[in-house]
Amino acid sequence: MKAAILKNLHEPLVIEDVAKPSPGPGEVVVRITAASLNHRDVWIQKGLYPKITTPIIPGSDGAGTVAEIGDGVDESWLGKEVIINPSQNWGDDPNFYGDDHKILGLPDNGTFAEFVKTEAKYLVEKPKYLSFEQAACLPLGALTAWRSLMTRCRLTAGDRVLVTGAGGGVALFAVQIAIAAGAEVWVTSGSDQKIQKAIEMGAKGGINYKIPTWYRDLLVKARGKKTGYFNVIIDSAGGSGFARLIDIAAPGARICFYGGGTGNITDIVPAKVFFKQLNIYGSTMGTEDEFRDMVSFVEQKEILPVIDKVFALENAEDALRYMDSGQQFGKIVLAI
Ligand SMILES: NC(=O)c1ccc[n+]([C@@H]2O[C@H](COP(=O)([O-])OP(=O)(O)OC[C@H]3O[C@@H](n4cnc5c(N)ncnc54)[C@H](OP(=O)(O)O)[C@@H]3O)[C@@H](O)[C@H]2O)c1
């Protein structure tokens, strides 16, 4: 089968013919029709991810058709159109994953290939209203957004939500899910055009985080009090900007971050956190139940994943470089 392979760190992906996987007991092989990128794939290539082993076929997100099943797998899966839950071996405690947790696409070969092997228990039927390309956008990003919003921040309709960096794959799912749940959603982005697109999708407003006074200006726009406005904040940037999130969080707010794209969090004033009784959470991926809940919510609300650009598998390296450039609004897809 054809696959995009990372042979060594810091090298471009190469396209090669490799042996097709075959399913063991409890496993299936899915013929991938579309895969999508996550920033994780870029971090892995750059060596900025724990426990990297090469060579590896990256890719955590995929949609396709079950081509083969192993012993013990229900035959009704054969030929079904599916997406794959990439958050595997979560363990027994829904609050935290266990030592064996792994994400599809490292250490196991992932979805940037014509076929991928996975355990049957990680299959979920593809929502019928979604194309393969749209469905391939969902797994990692929408799961991360779902757990951050719903489990960690206990989102309710009427919450005033701020999603930072709205152009990102996870962030845009957070915007869409929060809007669909009835929340008032505001965004930041490094691009005015991306803010405009988020507003067209139902966000109430936004501000460019490159403006030095963005946090004060955003409070003015949202007619918030000096003590803050947003009672749920979802962030993947971290860095020095995180302290500003503390400033604009409403008293009692829930703040969740799932990434640290701009580096370590600095300059948080403890008194601001405890006087405002803020709740700060970290979140990663999600459980099998959360994955199923996310897919059924997306289906029920008919959320359409936003695809920025589709690349052919042969151009997987170009797709990674495009993600690294940060131009995208939403997901980058590989047509396989
Ligand atoms: N913990 C987990 O389970 C988990 C899961 C998924 C992702 N992540 C992490 O979350 C991050 C985003 O992942 P992704 O796949 O969504 O990547 P992506 O599509 O490449 O998005 C990158 C994001 O960074 C934002 N950004 C860049 N500079 C920023 C700044 N100064 N302030 C605020 N936002 C800024 C971009 O916003 P604009 O384009 O709007 O400027 C965009 O949202 C990555 O660090 C990734 O490793 C973690």
3D architecture notes:
The protein is α/β, with parallel strands linked by helices and 336 residues long. The protein folds into 2 domains: 2-138 and 305-335, Medium-chain alcohol dehydrogenases, catalytic domain (Quinone Oxidoreductase, Chain A, domain 1, Alpha-Beta Complex), CATH 3.90.180; 143-282, NAD(P)-binding Rossmann-like Domain (Rossmann fold, 3-Layer(aba) Sandwich). It has helices at 39-45, 132-135, 139-152, 169-180, 192-200, 214-221, 242-248, 270-275, 288-300, 316-325; strands at residues 2-5, 14-17, 27-36, 61-69, 81-84, 87-88, 102-103, 115-119, 123-125, 160-163, 184-189, 205-208, 230-235, 249-257, 279-282, 307-312, 331-335. Strands 3, 4, 5, 8, 9, 16 and 17 form a 7-stranded mixed β-sheet that branches. The longest helix has 14 residues, at 139-152. It is globular. The mean pLDDT is 97. Residues 38-40, 43, 140-141, 144, 164-171, 189-191, 194, 209, 236-237, 241, 258-259, 261-262, 284-285, 323, 326, 328 line the site of NADP nicotinamide-adenine-dinucleotide phosphate.
Summary?
With 336 residues, the chain is of the alpha/beta class.
Oligomer: single chain
CATH homologous superfamily identity of the largest domain: Medium-chain alcohol dehydrogenases, catalytic domain
Assign the CATH architecture of the largest domain: Alpha-Beta Complex
Radius of gyration: 20 Å
Q: Major β-sheet, in short?
A: 7 strands, mixed
SSE order: EEEHEEEEEEHHEHEHEHEHEHEHEHE
3D shape: globular
Q: Mean pLDDT, as a whole number? A: 97
